[in-house]
């Protein structure tokens, strides 16, 4: 039995250690892309891979489902991972000193300058969408009441039921207490729940308004409409490709291959792509390749 257990050790190491993924497993790629656990990061990683391998001689691997952005950042610092998609609001996670401004251009500039200076990463311009908290209602409610922005619901707040992620309620600086102060809005009833449940809760009329994620596929599945954050309470979370600068110095062609994505993936497109994976059960790679072909971005 001891010998059998020993035979499993290399396999287990390959499964759980990033360094082993690129060396001990016997597969060495010029580029390894790390993704978070959510669907869109995996779809976008497949787009990067397809474009780079289509238009260069580089080989690309993807390590999916890394538990957090901080884990990916650490992996990139060690050079176990060379590329990922990050969101500009990442700078609010105490990586380095920032101004605290929520202005979209300022946050992008601080992300680009800070990650270059402190980590040696190149933070490219945004892909064209952000994934942030978004107050959301059913489309029929939005249309009948003329809701387009968060401030619009203030007139009806006393009779509205809010469904919201439990952890957000408990955060003092950027949670419900701070939101109520910023918007002068306090809903009649508040129902804490897991974030995965808010979409069905509002669709089934158990609550009237929920705090969701702005590119979640369930917005489309349940015909929900997000409301504009007109007081800019939530920081911007614009998605961008981020790469180790030494990789780009060695292979500047990488930037050219993924440049056609910059500014062209809007929120509606990302929701639709997420929907194809989450609801229609297509693979991330299938969805990514199909989109790139529709856009005429693949040479082969």
Q: Which properties best describe this structure?
A:
300 residues; alpha/beta; five-stranded mixed beta sheet; three-stranded antiparallel beta sheet; 42% helix
Indicate the percent of residues in helices.
40-55%
Give the structural class: alpha/beta
N→C terminal distance: 50 Å
* Count of beta strands: 10
| N-to-C series of helices and strands | HHEHEHEHEEHEHHEHEHEEHHHH
User: How many helices in DSSP terms?
Assistant: 14
Instruction: Let me know the largest β-sheet.
Output: 5 strands, mixed
Q: Which percent range describes the beta-strand content?
A: 15-25%
Radius of gyration: 21 Å
For the largest beta sheet, what order do the strands appear in spatially? 7-6-8-5-9
The average pLDDT is 90
Shape: globular
Which stretches are low in confidence, meaning pLDDT under 50 for 5 or more residues running? Answer: 1-27
Oligomer: single chain
Note down, in words, how this protein is organized.
There is one protein chain. Helix content is 42%, strand content 15%. It has a five-stranded mixed beta sheet. A three-stranded antiparallel beta sheet has the order 3-10-4, sandwiched between helices. It has a two-stranded parallel ribbon with strand order 1-2. It is globular and about 60 Å long. The N terminus is likely disordered.
Concise summary:
By secondary structure, the chain is α/β, with parallel strands linked by helices. Helix content is 42%, strand content 15%.
Topology of this protein?
Elements: H1 2-16, H2 18-22, E1 31-34, H3 39-55, E2 60-63, H4 69-77, E3 83-87, H5 104-119, E4 121-123, E5 133-138, H6 139-145, E6 161-165, H7 166-170, H8 176-183, E7 189-193, H9 198-203, E8 209-213, H10 218-221, E9 224-226, E10 239-244, H11 245-250, H12 253-258, H13 267-278, H14 284-294
Parallel strand pairs: 1-2, 6-7, 6-8
Antiparallel strand pairs: 3-10, 4-10, 5-8, 5-9
Helix pairs in contact: 3-14
